[in-house]
């Protein structure tokens, strides 16, 4: 028999190769599907409380930076020093009172802070000692009322430290709000403060900016002389400077005839020494219904008070809203208030003394502030 020497059927060869390739692809897809089913790409977030052991492990795992995403989990916080080499964001989480000793490079974003039953009446929800590059953003701080109806629990206490920012956060139903003691490089901005008994207290420190915050619905106890922002010198050593380089700008204070607003206490004995209050700017604030002191800063060196609008609502507010200023190299200009008490030597220009204002006018001014600084 003569052997068949005709060329092989190329179409048949291609078909066989196609079948082999199809089987290989099918096998790979089946293997991949099994792998995906066995090990999800996005495993479900852990739920339930964060134990102290887990919390310690999370901090250790993020020494080089990153995000700790807690969701709505409550945290059994263990006081310790945490100083990651790069920024760590702690997102979410529910915390009781916590203490941050020498924390560095940390952002709390969207966390909630509240006091469990049995928390001491005057406990601060955060005590930060010598913190650096600490940011508290989009957080909520909530106190509570005792059986007698009095407000309890305080907001953050920042003692010492450098570069602390608190922004876009809410503080409500609290005995006291915040304290900055010998802190430097503070930014407190775009926050909401409501239903509180006392406001911000500042002792010492420098480079502090308080801006675009809304203070409303103050609820002092009988006999209180509450203040929205108060500076004093209690506890400072004789050679330790008072607060210097302070800006209070573009805030809305709805005092409701219940609280004083900006009160700079003491300072006479230090005026001109280099250790007193110095280099203050108070500008662009809207103050409605202050008790006695709308802006009171009698002993400051190098201060500018300008563009503030202070209102007493007719047939509603009991007291005039006034500006009192004095010291060395003080400028008071372009303000509107019910009264001005200025010491000798103050440079003043274009200030307007006005009587009580109609509610509609004040409402319009408040609406302007809201549209500018709280747009939807």
From TrEMBL:
<dbReference type="InterPro" id="IPR011050">
    <property type="entry name" value="Pectin_lyase_fold/virulence"/>
</dbReference>
<protein>
    <recommendedName>
        <fullName>Right handed beta helix domain-containing protein</fullName>
    </recommendedName>
</protein>
<feature type="domain" description="Right handed beta helix">
    <location>
        <begin position="122"/>
        <end position="263"/>
    </location>
</feature>
<dbReference type="InterPro" id="IPR012334">
    <property type="entry name" value="Pectin_lyas_fold"/>
</dbReference>
<feature type="transmembrane region" description="Helical">
    <location>
        <begin position="20"/>
        <end position="38"/>
    </location>
</feature>
<keyword id="KW-0812">Transmembrane</keyword>
<dbReference type="Pfam" id="PF13229">
    <property type="entry name" value="Beta_helix"/>
</dbReference>
<keyword id="KW-0472">Membrane</keyword>
<keyword id="KW-1133">Transmembrane helix</keyword>
<dbReference type="InterPro" id="IPR039448">
    <property type="entry name" value="Beta_helix"/>
</dbReference>
């Amino acid at each position: 028999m003569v052997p068949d020497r005709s060329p092989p059927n190329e179409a048949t060869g291609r078909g066989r190769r196609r079948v082999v390739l199809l089987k290989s692809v099918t096998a790979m897809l089946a293997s991949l599907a099994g792998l995906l089913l066995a090990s999800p790409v996005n495993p479900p977030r852990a739920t339930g409380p964060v134990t102290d052991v887990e919390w310690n492990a999370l901090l250790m795992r993020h020494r080089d930076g990153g995000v700790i995403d807690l969701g709505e989990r409550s945290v059994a916080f263990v006081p310790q020093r945490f100083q990651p080499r790069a920024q760590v964001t702690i997102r979410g989480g529910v915390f009781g009172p916590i203490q941050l000793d020498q924390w560095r490079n940390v952002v709390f974003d969207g966390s909630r802070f509240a006091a469990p039953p049995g928390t001491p009446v005057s406990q601060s929800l955060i005590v930060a000692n010598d913190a650096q590059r600490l940011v508290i953003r989009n957080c909520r701080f909530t106190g509570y009322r005792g059986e007698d109806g009095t407000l309890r629990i305080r907001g953050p206490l920042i003692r010492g430290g450098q570069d602390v920012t608190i922004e876009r956060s809410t503080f409500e139903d609290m005995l006291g709000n915040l304290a900055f003691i010998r802190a430097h490089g503070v930014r407190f901005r775009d926050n909401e403060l409501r239903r509180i008994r006392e406001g911000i207290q500042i002792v010492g420190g420098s480079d502090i900016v308080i801006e675009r915050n809304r203070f409303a619905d103050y609820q002092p106890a009988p006999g209180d002389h509450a203040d929205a922002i108060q500076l004093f010198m209690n506890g400072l050593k004789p050679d330790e400077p008072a607060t210097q380089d302070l800006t209070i700008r573009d805030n809305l204070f709805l005092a409701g005839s219940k609280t004083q607003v900006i009160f700079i206490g003491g300072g006479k004995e230090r005026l001109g020494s280099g250790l007193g209050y110095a280099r203050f700017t108070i500008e662009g604030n809207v103050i409605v219904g202050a008790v006695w002191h709308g802006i009171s800063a009698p002993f400051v060196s190098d201060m500018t008070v300008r563009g503030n609008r202070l209102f007493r609502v007719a047939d509603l507010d009991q007291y005039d809203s006034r500006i009192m200023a004095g010291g060395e190299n003080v400028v008071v200009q372009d303000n509107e208030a019910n009264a001005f008490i200025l010491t000798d030597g103050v440079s003043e220009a274009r200030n307007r003394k006005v009587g009580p204002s109609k509610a509609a006018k004040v409402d319009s001014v408040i609406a302007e502030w809201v549209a500018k600084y709280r747009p939807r």
